[in-house]
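Audit log entry. Action: structure prediction of a protein-small molecule complex. Ligand: calcium ion. The ligand was supplied as SMILES and no pocket hint was given, so placement is left entirely to the predictor. Protonation state taken as written. Sequence taken verbatim from the request; no trimming, no tag removal. Recorded inputs:
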Amino acid sequence: MTYTRYTASRRLGPCTLGRPHEAGDDEAGWSFAHPGRVPANTVGLAAPWNALPRLPKRDDPRDPVLRRWARAVLVGRGIQAPARITAAYSIDLDGDGTPECVFSAWSPNQDTPQVPRKAQYSFLAVRTHGVTVVLNGGFDPTPHSYEEYLDHYTPVAFLDIDGDGTPEILAEDAGWEWGGIQAYHVTPTGATLLLSCYEGGN
Ligand SMILES: [Ca+2]
Ligand SMILES: [Ca+2]
């Protein structure tokens, strides 16, 4: 089966992979057989249309406006901590001519979750029409005496996966021993989950 590979800002070209097949009894979901190495942060899409109709612009994670939006999300969930943005992109997702901003944020202690710390967070959000919409995330305002690992959310690409001419947000959800990808469709009134798939398990 032929897929076209994309990164967040480039079309890399075709590659041939196995068809998705149902996983075994002790696994959930579907998996792909891929004979070669698949580069990290690459998405393969078997679609005849141009899935990269608009290019995103990578934003500076230290941007104070971005950090203010993220900080407001944290305060709203009871976390009084500086916001650390891990990735940010601007791209018009709903076709109104004004770019949305898609960003992810993790608390610094998520880099070394073996060390129990203070409040923790990890989330993915889109700023659209003056509102910050949290697409996925974990928030734990309570310090623990044991280790805890929240899933890490990262925007990976902005591809038109349903062929309607507007790009969706494709984001990685990386758990401790498993991973997945979600696709979100953004409209002027909000965002909806279009697709979600995972592989791996405990
Ligand atoms: Ca827009
Ligand atoms: Ca689309």
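Audit: result stored. The first strand starts at residue 2 and ends at 6. The helical segments are 64-76.
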